[in-house]
Amino acid sequence: MRAHYERILHDTEGRAERALRKQCLRGDTPWLGAFAQEDGVYQAKSTIYQVAGMLAVWCNGDSRLFHSPLLLERMHLGLDYVARVQHENGLFDYVTCNFFSAPDTAFCVAKLLPALRYLRTLDSPDAETARLRDRVEDIVHRGARGLLEGGFHTPNHRWAIASVLAMGGRLFGEDDLTEAAGQYLREGLDCNADGEYAEKSAGNYNAVNNDAMLLLSEALDDPAFEEPVVRNLHMMLTYWEPDDSVFTANSTRFDRDRRVYPDQYYLQYLLLGVRRGIPAFLAMANHIFRVIEAHRLEAPDVLMELMLRPELIACESDACGTPQSYRAFYRDSGIARVRRGGWTCTVMRGKSDFLYVHNGTIKLMVKLGGSFCEHRAFRAETMEEDASGAFHLHQTMRGWYYLPFDEKPPTSDWWQMDNAKRKKKLGPDMDIDITVREVSGGLQLEVQTSGVEGAPWRLELAFGGIERISTEHMTMPVHGDEVLVLRDGDFEVSCPASVMRLGPAFGTHHFTEGKEDSEAKTPGAATVYLTDYTPFRHVLLIRPEG
After folding, report:
1. CB 164 within 8 A of CB 144
2. CA 226 from centre of chain
3. Residue 246 has what pLDDT?
């Protein structure tokens, strides 16, 4: 994609020039040569990422910064700092969190690997290029050896470490690195049949895992490691929202509910679109650049990867876009995604925010909240698709009470008692069944509770991106955190570009928040509560319109 390459080159040049202003040049500090991250902290990772980008444009004959003396001087200053803070065992600290950290070292080394691999391809490099190559190689080699000590916190860390060990084994011909990678791989990959990784992090770690899988595939010369990436990228085709962002509410990590755009998936879609001949992936690569243009984002930081693979620059495709109509039920992941033109619907198992409807700039999040023993909101234990295509969610909330010990306990201190050994009085149980069904022009939401009488519960409808809430009798402007309890009738929420119509409302009490009530309302959202006492059955129609 020549036009993409030119934009990536231009933006990488801009980042390199801006980075010069973030580099510490004070010789009286331990951070001489380091590049500050956004919060002003200096550390190895932020410095390596900046040096890697500078290396790409410094080595690129199409760049106006090709062999820039100033860039060369600053890169060496940066590498001086990196070498100083690399521990004797090869590991780096991630100073805001982890020390002597194998996973953070893996991420640092992985960022330098494309540069090292590119520099190694150059025949008869000049003295300055050879010196840069040797310095980068020393940092990479020491870091790869440091990974032999291991240690990780999260699922994705395993693949970051394993992939760098495997590529280190290949680059340096050291079998112990390759064997150490195998120790991690013996655990088995955590990408399920749906294409979802354990952390369900569509806004970040899915892409991080994909990068590791692709590196493993190259390092071990085994295309089987591409298979989870292909599955994930197919799944991700159903994760884009009408505003071009990624659906992140199912994530178990920091990206949950954050607005994230899909730029980090660009290289993956392009690479496997070319390598596997998948037109939908090439269309997605083009679409990502359309999103970059529309939202004035910077192009992804993948210049050196494209320089390593000139066939990706030469590839051209006119296809562009994402699927506009689909229905996907990922049973293992506990999530269903539906798109019908300008709106999407998401249904999730195990989440209190079990339903999302996204219509242009309007986002609706739905919860069923209340108090029953230790429960504060409905979280589906099961999720099934019935014969009609509706999604059925169910939870049985078990009631229970402790009973006295049969024998006098050895202590009167409650916190020292082995309360897990107490007998329990069981019951009552509350059953909650929710059905989400497609109907003409939108969705039908059916909510039914049974088993307990007289508990005040509420259906919480939290809206983002709206300016007005209107009923037959009034129109209420929205500024952010409004709360409204509606008793009956239809209502609509709107902004200049979109409308969502809902109804009929129901309301028999005003118990919306309190000491023993459900989870706190969604911060920053305009919220409509529909309330009743259990048991009840209500049906709500949701009609998103452009």
Report:
1. yes
2. 20
3. 96
Q: What is the 3-state secondary structure (H, E, C) of 325-356?
A: EEEEEECCCCEEEEEECCEEEEEECCCCCCEE
**Position 406, amino acid:** D
Amino acid in position 82: V
**Number of helices and strands in the chain (H, E):** 13, 20
> 64 — phi, psi (to 5°)?
-70, -10
pTM exceeds cut of 0.85: yes
Which residues, in sequence order, are CB contacts of 377 under 8 Å at separation 6+? 352, 367, 368, 369, 370, 518, 519
Concatenated DSSP letters for 29-80? STTTT-BB-TTS-B-HHHHHHHHHHHHHHHH-TTSTTTT-HHHHHHHHHHHH
Give the DSSP letter string of 485-532.
Answer: E--SS-EEEE-SS-EEEEE----S----S-TTSSSPPPTT-EEEEEEE
User: Does 516 score more than 70 pLDDT?
Assistant: no
pLDDT tens-digit map of 189-238:
999 999 999 999 999 999 999 999 999 999 999 999 999 999 999 999 99
Task: Name residue, tokens 């979109």.
Answer: 498
Residue 298, C-beta contacts closer than 8 angstroms, at least 6 positions apart: 11, 14, 15, 263, 292
- Phi/psi of residue 436, nearest 5 degrees: -115, 120
Q: How confident is the model at residue 546 (pLDDT cuts 50, 70, 90)?
A: low
Helix (H) or strand (E) holding 543: strand 536-545
Per DSSP (E only), the strands in 234-331 are 325-330
- 514 pLDDT more than 60: no
